[in-house]
Design goal:
This protein folds into two domains: 189 residues, Flavodoxin domain (Rossmann fold); 209 residues, Flavodoxin domain (Rossmann fold, 3-Layer(aba) Sandwich). The protein contains 14 helices and 17 strands. Helix 1 packs across helix 6. 37% of the residues lie in helices and 18% in strands. The chain has a 15-stranded mixed sheet that branches. It has a two-stranded antiparallel sheet with strand order 5-6. The chain is α/β, with parallel strands linked by helices. Bound molecules: flavin mononucleotide. Flavin mononucleotide binds next to helix 1, strand 5 and strand 7. It holds the Pfam family FMN_red. This is Flavodoxin family protein. It comes from Streptomyces aureoversilis.
Length: 416
């Protein structure tokens, strides 16, 4: 299936427009059907000739390159208006499963460009989108925009960020990096639509690894439910425990209840084995617990793709109180996942159970003020997250879609 890619830009001086043109050409070179679209600008910018972007273009696209200038460390107001304009489609559950990447430009090298890309992804995750950065790609995928040949990226794994010049000019290496990013996005969008190259073992069940801090009882139960959700879709699942300095001592949580057997300790090979990976952790000081961060850091190779490259990944958390970092920990986890080249596939609002469990689109979360054990709503959300991981892992390896009766996203239903 030919993927449909929309490259949507806002530009006053021309930087973002040039990058968008290059990304569109890269997506076209992959073989995608491409639309280059501008965002309306209250008359403040030049009248660029491209068609104006609207919410229906998000609906049309399988993949989107979102290109906003950095304004005060954020997307520009016109760009935010464009995102907000998709509310009705989002509410109707029609924007799930788009594949999104981001591009930006800023005057200062460290003037908020990473913040802008991460903000873009946060909004895309509310849609239920999958986000692809410029981190290392898996072998055989379209070339790596962070490759030293494309100096414009400067090692930014979140997407493309370049230095804006006064005249709106764009260096050739930045244009080349935008081209590569467009091509990569089209490649992932094609596979997400089951139109990519079939994996050599396409008939085998997809593989999901659920890694968790097992000493935290809440997280352990969420992990089991997540694993059960993946198995519901026919996935082969490895439930793995993080070894390392004790989470129990750090968090002061009770140990394993009921004498359930401990999961095997996780190893890098469990991540290499999987088609998709889900990470569960208690929140410590607004971030993931140290053992998880240590394990993730061991996955990021000094150069080239690591075992997470090109694979769907997401996380779930437990906190002591309702607003004690359940969002910030997951957002910081997403940053690390992008560094590893993963495709971040959080739950978004892709199922009513997400709303019922507190409405965290970045990952399932449970606050222990509601009880040490997860609520039935949190368990249902974890199960949904496991199903989604299995589905995304299946898609990105190009395997045929699972049977219609088991499918749970509008995109799946639409395709079968
Ligand atoms: C309202 C406004 C806010 C800006 N904020 C930042 C900023 O936070 N950091 C930075 O480095 N550059 C900032 N800039 C510079 C823009 O990032 C730069 O002009 C833009 O990326 C150029 O893109 P364009 O050529 O596509 O219009 C700002 C510019 C404007 C107009």
């Amino acid at each position: 299936m030919t993927p449909r890619v929309a490259v949507v830009y806002h530009s006053r001086r021309g930087t973002m427009r040039s990058l968008a043109e290059a990304a569109a050409a890269g997506a076209q070179a992959y073989g995608a059907q491409v639309r280059l679209l501008r965002i309306a600008d209250d008359g403040a910018g030049p009248a660029w000739p491209e068609e104006e972007a609207g919410p229906e273009d998000v609906l049309w696209a399988d993949g989107l390159v979102l290109a906003s200038p950095t304004y005060f460390g954020n997307v520009s107001a016109p760009f935010k208006r464009f995102l907000d304009g998709t509310t009705k489609l989002w509410w109707d559950g029609l924007l799930n499963d788009r594949v999104v990447t981001g591009m930006t430009a800023s005057t200062c090298l460290h003037g908020g460009r990473e913040a802008t890309l991460l903000t873009l992804y946060q909004s895309a995750h509310h849609w239920g989108a999958w986000t692809v950065g410029a981190g290392p790609a898996r072998p055989g995928d379209p070339a790596d925009p962070a490759d030293p040949a494309c100096y414009g990226v400067g090692g930014n794994p979140y997407g493309l960020a370049v230095t804006a010049l006064r005249d709106g000019g764009v260096a050739e290496h930045d244009r080349a990096a935008a081209w590569e990013l467009g091509r990569r996005l089209a490649g992932v969008a094609a596979r997400a639509r089951s139109g990519g190259r079939p994996a050599p073992d396409a008939a085998a069940p997809s593989r999901v690894t659920v890694v968790h801090c097992a000493e935290d009882e809440t997280v352990r139960l969420l992990a089991q439910e997540c694993a059960a959700g993946a198995r519901e879709l026919g996935a082969e699942v490895r439930l793995r425990r993080l070894a390392g300095p004790g989470v129990r001592r750090e968090s002061g949580l009770p140990g394993r209840a009921g004498g359930a057997p401990a999961a095997a300790a996780v190893d890098t090979a469990d991540v290499a084995w999987a088609d998709s990976v889900v990470f569960g952790t208690p929140v410590r000081a607004g971030a993931v617990a140290a053992p998880l961060l240590g394990f993730l850091q061991s996955l990021e190779p000094p150069a080239g793709p690591g075992p997470l490259a090109g694979k769907p990944a997401s996380g779930f958390v437990s906190t002591a109180r309702p607003h004690a970092g359940s969002e910030s920990a997951l957002l910081s986890l997403h940053h690390v996942l992008h560094h590893c080249g993963a495709v971040v596939v959080p739950p978004g609002y892709t199922d009513p159970v997400v709303f019922e469990a507190g409405g965290n689109p970045y990952g399932t979360s449970h606050a222990r003020s509601a009880g040490v054990l997860p609520t039935v709503q949190a368990l249902a959300a974890a199960r949904h997250q496991g199903r989604r991981a299995a589905l995304a892992g299946d898609r990105l390896r190009g395997r045929p879609a699972p049977e219609a009766g088991l499918l749970d996203t509008p995109l799946e239903k639409e395709l079968t």
